[in-house]
Amino acid sequence: MLSIFSLKGIQNARIFTRSIVNIRGEISFQSNRLKIESKIVRKMSANAQNRQFKMYPPIEPFQSGHLKVSDIHSIYYEQCGNPDGNPIVFLHGGPGGGINAEQRCLFDPKAYRIVLFDQRGAGKSTPHACLDQNTTWDLVEDTERIRKHLNIEKWVVFGGSWGSTLALAYAETHTDRVKALILRGIFTLRRKELLWFYQQGGGADFLFPEAFEAYIAPIPLVERGDVISAYHRRLTGNDEAEKLKCAKAWTTWEMATSRLIVDPANLAKGEEDHFALQFARIENHYFVNGGFFEEDGQLLRDAHKIANIPGVIVQGRYDVVCPATTAWDLHKAWPKADLFIVPDAGHSVKESGILNRLLEYCEKYKDL
Predict the structure, then answer these.
(1) How far apart are CA 216 and CA 202, in angstroms?
(2) Tell me, what's the pLDDT at 42?
(3) Is 131 helix (H, G, I), strand (E, B) or coil?
(4) How far apart are CA 235 and CA 237, in angstroms?
């Protein structure tokens, strides 16, 4: 005869055994799900590589100008390509990166009405490197002001890096004005994304130790617990020589890490006074203010608003500036979008695998 203690032992053993079975089943389910998702990504990454797309020849704007968007800011914009074509707006990176002539060549000039503009404080927009009245939501409304100014009903929105941030913020605010989203190097400005790249021990410093050492060199050891804030004090201070020195160090850090193979031409941009000041001051201003979002992860929280918008997410596997985890998180929140993890690329639009995917989707969406 079994004692009550033996009966309880058998019952507990059965419960334990069932638990093990359930755990194994859950592990098996999760494993199969990951295998399926991995196959999807590999399939997508393999597909359109059969066709190689090329950028279009250089083109000049058929119209350009400045649009007054506040009592302080005037935004430079330009239109290229076909005045009667499918409208597409290019949102540059940074924030503070500005536009250039090469970016016009991403789009078929016979098919697209191409709109590009310098965001507040960047490029030809005035005043240069100005931080007043310069927030994510100011830029969202500037994008909408330009659309209205040009009498465009709806457009395709293209953005990479910070441009993907602004594109998501715009699409989640003005969903009915977006035909499709073409996004690269996804950045949602979550705290962990900033710490990964800008803070000692975050992660990026382990991969580029020599470049990171140069980046933190202007900051005293006692202030390195919060490098972004330490830079902010100097980039907004009154010591102009220190401001420029820090602007160059900040900018060079990103230029040194944005490609799988370091690009000397990219590095040289960090030494350009005008560019470095706008890039570092505006970027740092946004980052120290958490992107002016209501909460960390707001763009992913609100991704349900773009659930029915077609789009593509193009991400370099070895993107150090905007790691692939954010692209994956966005894809889970926005499953309608196609996701491509480019296996031999970093962050830059100029890397061939990334560029080819972007050109493929520009071709795909030109008749929307």
Answers:
(1) 13
(2) 43
(3) coil
(4) 6
Q: Are 121 and 134 in contact (CB under 8 A)?
A: yes
Q: Judge if pTM exceeds 0.85.
A: yes
Catalytic member of 118, 142, 161, 331: 161
Averaged over 336-360, what is the pLDDT?
A: 97
- Residue 49's pLDDT is 53
Q: Round to whole Å and give the CA distance between 290 and 223.
A: 19
Q: At what angle do helices 240-257 and 273-288 cross, to 10 degrees?
A: 80
Is residue 92 part of the annotated active site? The answer reads no
CA distance 186 to 346: 12
Q: Which of 92, 108, 347, 348 is catalytic?
A: 347
Q: What is the pLDDT of residues 98-115, one digit of tens each?
A: 999 999 999 999 999 999
Partner residues linked to 88 by β-bridges: 114, 156
For residue 61, give both structure tokens: 């704007």
Sheet strands side by side (includes 86-91): 63-68, 74-81, 112-117, 86-91, 155-160, 178-184, 311-316, 338-342
Is 161 an annotated catalytic residue?
A: yes
Query: Which residues lie below 8 Å from residue 101, measured CB to CB, with a gap of 6+?
Result: 58
Q: How far apart are CA 185 and CA 338, in angstroms?
A: 14
- Cα separation values, 299 from 126, 196, 294, 295, 349, Å: 28, 18, 10, 9, 22
CA distance 118 to 99: 6
pLDDT range class, residue 352, cuts 50, 70, 90: very high
Per annotation, catalytic residue among 108, 142, 319, 338 = 319
Is position 66 annotated as part of the catalytic site?
A: no
Q: Tell me how far the alpha carbon of residue 301 is from its chain's centroid.
A: 16
Residue 1: band (very low, low, confident or very high) from pLDDT cuts 50, 70, 90 = very low
